[in-house]
Amino acid sequence: MGCDAAGVIAAIRSAAAVVDAHRDELVNLDREIGDADHGENLKRGFTAVVSKLDAAGDTPGAVLKVVASTLISTVGGAAGPLYGTAFLRAAAKLGTAVAVTPGSVVDALEAALEGVVARGKAEPGDKTMVDALTPAVAAARAAPGSVADVLRAAADAADQGARDTVPLVARKGRASYLGERSAGHMDPGARSTALLLRAFAEAAS
Amino acid sequence: MIGLVLVSHSARLAEGLAELAGQMAPDVRILPAGGLADGTLGTDFDAVSAAVDRAESGDGVALLYDLGSAKMTAELAVEMLGDPSRAVVVDAPFVEGAVAAAVAAQGGGDLDTVSRAAVAAGAVAPDAATGTETGTEFTLTNDVGLHARPAALLARTVAELDAEVTVRFGEKQANAASVLALMGLGAHGGDTVSVSATGPDAAEAVRRVDDLVARGFDE
């Protein structure tokens, strides 16, 4: 992809397609430890996002801001404000730059993580999307190379982070009501975070 | 006057609570923001933002919420306001907090006072065995006893003071900052309740309650 607004729009379209393809998987993960709506909610949100992309703006930050406000208004549940905050903070970090760079992508990912942590008050180990996003930011920060290289490192780390949520006992969100019974299942939010980062990485390659 | 926005996953819960709190605070703008546009359960960011706009009359808005993601939606709505200092998300029990906030707003409290009233509504009544305590007994001379309006008046009176006030009736006790807890005592006209208070303003709190009872709660 290019690193300008058109490239970011293409990456968001890829993410929407991935969310669509993995809807049932996310629903099933959420059925085990939540209320079974994560896949459908994200699909609804990204479908709405795609319908707005053509007029989303001419900078990466402007595009991500449209993504944020659309997700906030359409996803519902906890994922709406959390993903909305993530894209909003990333958009603010990118500002009015006309293209992203490896460095600005890392900064945007870090701002997204800080936003999610501030909004959801979750820490690593709580069995949430923070468990995918935290290692992703660290890996992105350590990865040399292009935007694609940075995003690939982030996606790889997020995949591992999501897998690492399986044995954890949830301490935040709906799954925390299950206590010990939440162990043995992958967190749906961590999984969707890993899926989105993988989609961005592949769009950038 | 401070406005209130009640953010709930359920439209009926938000509307019912707005009705309940509104009965004790007729002049306060209390906006329910519950459920999704299609009538299902969830929190709707656009509805919450619109409610904040309509609740604002120039002095600020306090938002109360039911469950976790309602809190996040409320916080996001505040973050995206032009001036986030005009609104605050209050960590308080939804029902008790909304009623206490409404009463405090009706009494002319500022945003900080209204928020603190909501938070205090969730406080557990102090243990009678601890602290220096002052108190006395009163026989309620008004007809309805500690029903909604007198309970709201009593809560508002003690909320202004630095004191933890407990009202006991028979086996039950209530934090006087909580309108619903006071109503839950079920004390009617002619019943005798005991009032005790701790804290720097304890004596003044008991004196003011004495005054309220003597005036028959202005009925």
Encode the helix/strand succession of chain B as letters.
EHEHEHEHHEHEEHEH
Uncertain spans of chain B, ≥5 residues at pLDDT below 50? none
Q: Kindly, what is the distance between the CA atoms of the first and last residues of chain B, rounded to a whole number of angstroms?
A: 25 Å
CATH fold descriptor of chain A: Serine Threonine Protein Phosphatase 5, Tetratricopeptide repeat
Total separate domains of chain B: 2
By helix and strand content of chain A, what is the structural category?
mainly alpha
Number of helices of chain A: 9
Please give the oligomerization state of what you see: heterodimer
The proportion of residues forming helix of chain A, as a percent range, comes to 55-70%
Radius of gyration of chain A, in Å, reads: 16 Å
Shape summary of chain A: globular
Do you know the CATH topology of the largest domain in chain B? Rossmann fold
| Strand segment tally of chain A | 0
Sketch the major β-sheet of chain B. 4 strands, parallel
Number of strand segments of chain B: 8
Pfam family, one (chain B): PTS-HPr
Catalytic activity (chain B): dihydroxyacetone + phosphoenolpyruvate = dihydroxyacetone phosphate + pyruvate
GO molecular function (chain B): phosphoenolpyruvate-glycerone phosphotransferase activity
Keywords (chain B): Sugar transport, Transferase, Transport
How would you briefly describe this protein structure?
The complex is a heterodimer of chains A (205) and B (219). Chain A is an all-alpha fold and 205 residues long.
Tags for this entry?
heterodimer; A: 205 residues; mainly alpha; Serine Threonine Protein Phosphatase 5, Tetratricopeptide repeat; globular; B: 219 residues; alpha/beta; Rossmann fold; Histidine-containing Protein, Chain: A; 2 domains; 4-stranded parallel beta sheet; 4-stranded antiparallel beta sheet; 8 helices; 42% helix
